[in-house]
Specification:
mainly beta; Ribosome biogenesis protein YTM1; 34 strands; Methylamine Dehydrogenase, Chain H; Ubiquitin-like (UB roll); WD40/YVTN_repeat-like_dom_sf; 5-stranded mixed sheet
Length: about 475
Amino acid sequence: MNPSGSTGARQIPVNLFTRSEYAIPASTYFIPADWRRFQLSELINKVLGHGGESGVAPVPFDFVVEGEVLRGSLDAWLKAHRGDDEETAINVEYMQSVLPPSDAGRWEQEDWVSGLSVARRGTVLVSSYLSHVRVLPLAGGIGDAPTPLYTLPLPTALGATCCTWLADDMVAAGGVDRATHVFRLPSLDPAEAAAENNTAHELYTLMGHTAPISSIAAGPARELASAAWDGQINVYALPSEEPEEHEVPADPTSYLPGQKKRRKLAKETGQGPQPIEGLTDGDATGESGMGWRRAPTLVLRGHKGRVGGLVWDHEDASRIWSAGWDGSVRGWDAETGANVVVRQGPSDKALLCVSQFAPTGQLAAGSMDRTVTLWDTRAAQSVIAGTLHVGSPVPSIACHPTSAFTLATATYAGAVQIWDVRSPKHALFSVRHTPAREQTKNGKALGERLLAVDWDGEVLVAGGEDGEVGLWRARGE
């Protein structure tokens, strides 16, 4: 058991274990203290029978020692954490190595990037505070931004805050105007999309919130849930055929939160409420270009304050998860509207976003206090199952679509980080989303804060105040 040829080094007891398919016989192995990741990885491949004449390629492994990725030798870790104790066995978990992300280009946008989705392989969906949504093809992939398949303007000047894909080639974007706008795309084929008569139009305008939309999530069928700063979650069932009438009347004179001065002046002058600049509630055939106005099927109330993030359960079609500024993570029954799960963390821990590990159902929530908290909602006794100390507020998070352990975070410090939750003390990788310019084309100043990240298991994308979409090749498993 000496693949590296190390001789004369003292032996230390090590318990090697894994939660992957590469398990070796359970035993306490006596291993030279000067061994590092390479020698340990070589040992496991030898026990598994990989390499050599077996015809099976060796698998590179990383090692986590009591929650910390092994960066040096076992001896160095032992001296730093155990002192002179060389008799107690060290528990070492091993996992297949995650390759570092490789830069695949920057795509310049005209304004802040507020939302991203790579849920449809081969495309990037981008929402912007310039109040439009773009569908960009990944065919070219690297270099300059490709010609958009579609640019979908929202009928408001107030900005889009988030976006997502829906069934039947539909996309949706939440807005500062308190509505979610749903568009139908004629085709995702570049040749057909470029046809002169192939234009996308807004099909539905989903109403019901009294504050800007913070997050939207698509259901397994023709369903959509939206969360907002008003503290409520709305669930919409979209009809299979285009309707012929509105469910909600136009209301161009309602007020957005924070416009107390406008309301007071209207009352003093006796003029009544006036239309809000940038807020254009119209009808499907009007000049505003809005779709058929729809009312929510269900309204979910329970959060005490703003709702930061929303995700539809990957396995249970009747379950919606939300994370709020009140520090709580809640599970909702999408059929009855009941709040069936409540996990209350510290009330001053504002949760800004949430994502879910598909294999395990565990939730990961990014917060304003510069941490990512892990929530095992399927264990009744668990509140916060783990914490990753990111170092900056986390407005967006994306769990790997197939891995049960890796996730990506976007931070206000402008860094994109990849984490393995089995090693919570340090990120596996961190890449900077450095702006390549000081101003956008329309002259707006740029900042470093990231606002959105998404990951499809092959391509990692992030964007924010610097007005660019950054792309990386990253497998993450």
